[in-house]
UniProtKB/TrEMBL annotation:
This protein's name: Integral membrane protein
Residue ranges of the TM segments: 25-48, 144-167
The UniProt record lists the keyword Transmembrane helix: yes
UniProt superkingdom: Bacteria
Keywords noted in UniProt: Membrane, Transmembrane, Transmembrane helix
InterPro entries xrefs: MT1774/Rv1733c-like
Keyword Transmembrane helix belongs to the record: yes
Length: 193
């Protein structure tokens, strides 16, 4: 080693220094606020979102119930269709509601079934067709994903606001350096010229 190693001074913005400017102190507070907001706010946003999603999925499981329905028309088999819903088609079904009335509506059913076939459909608390609710395991995974997304979104917003604030401070710093240079530069030019 040649002995010209530069030591990095930790927390330099917080230390007393005659070269430290007001913008340096403000920047230190901004960095601290951003990290605290990310750690505390991001965690809270993720937990609150995950809890709310889990509660909503539990309400769906409690509200929806399966019932038997009858297909009113044949559901043709599709030749060569692709995609996630390729094994299902929209078909009209009839079921008996909890109050004893017969109802009809359209829902997705497996292809290739004949009219009169019995299928299971899910109804919500009002008796309208609904999708099957998530199992507790699926709901936990979905809640965790939504909570993580909320935490990441909050973190991104906080970092964005902090970056804009630091950028504005840098612009002020550069402007102040320019005005100070205009005061000092004529003196230097006289001495060197």
């Amino acid at each position: 080693m040649d002995g010209t190693r530069c030591a990095k001074v930790r927390l330099w913005r917080w230390r007393s220094n005659p070269l430290r400017r007001r913008e340096d102190i403000v920047e230190a507070w901004i960095v601290l606020a951003v990290w605290v907001a990310v750690l505390v706010g991001g965690t809270l946003a993720g937990l609150v979102t995950a809890h709310a999603a889990d509660r909503a999925f539990a309400e769906q499981r409690g509200d929806r119930h399966p019932t038997r329905a009858v297909l009113l028309a044949d559901v043709p088999k599709a030749a060569g269709s692709a995609g996630p819903a390729s094994g299902h088609a929209l078909a009209e079904v009839r079921w008996t509601a909890d109050d004893g009335t017969a109802r009809t509506d359209k829902t997705l059913v497996a292809r290739g079934q004949q009219a009169g076939a019995e299928i299971v459909v899910w109804l919500d608390g009002r008796g309208a067709l609904a999708i099957e609710p998530m199992s507790p395991g699926e709901a936990s995974v979905e809640s965790a994903a939504l909570g993580s997304a909320a935490a990441l979104a909050f973190t991104g917003v906080v970092f964005g606001v902090g970056t804009v604030a630091r950028w504005r401070l840098d612009r002020r710093r550069v402007a102040r350096w320019g005005s100070e240079w205009e005061l000092v530069e004529p003196e230097w030019r006289r001495k060197t010229g």
